[in-house]
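Hi P.,

Sorry for the delay on this. The queue was packed all week, but I finally got your sequence through. Input first:
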Amino acid sequence: MEHNDVSINVLKTAILLERRGKAFYTHAANMSENSSVKKIFEMMAEEENAHIDFLVKQFKSFSNSNRFLEIVDHPEEDDSMEILTENVKAEISAAGFEAAAISAAIDFENRAIEVYRKRADEATDKNEKEMYKILASWEAAHHHLLYKLNEDLKEKIWDDNNFWPF
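Then the structure:
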């Protein structure tokens, strides 16, 4: 497969991953009864939308000119979700829908990180390499937030149900 075909296919995969993530987070927000969890999922959907826009610009550039745009400025991830996680831990059941959605979201983020890191390692174009490094970093930040929240919820369910062996 030609370099251009690989780059186009990975871009298509990346856009699809981000669209699926956005759809998942939007659905999870709509289904959530907890306002803090709803807000986290809405913010995640918004960030996935920013990732889609970021990728679509690169896709258009590469499709039209076989060149990736130089990344001089890119949207920063919103760290206000960190503040919401304390509310989430206090308000949701560790065995309910919201907790299950957080666990599923971790899998989405892992998949995206894997795709982006692999392509960043393989890419020879410096702008393409930089783009995938940035995307992997964004998704790693999402993963970190969700993973920490999931771990705290696991501790909560263990505490609430006296699962400790001592």
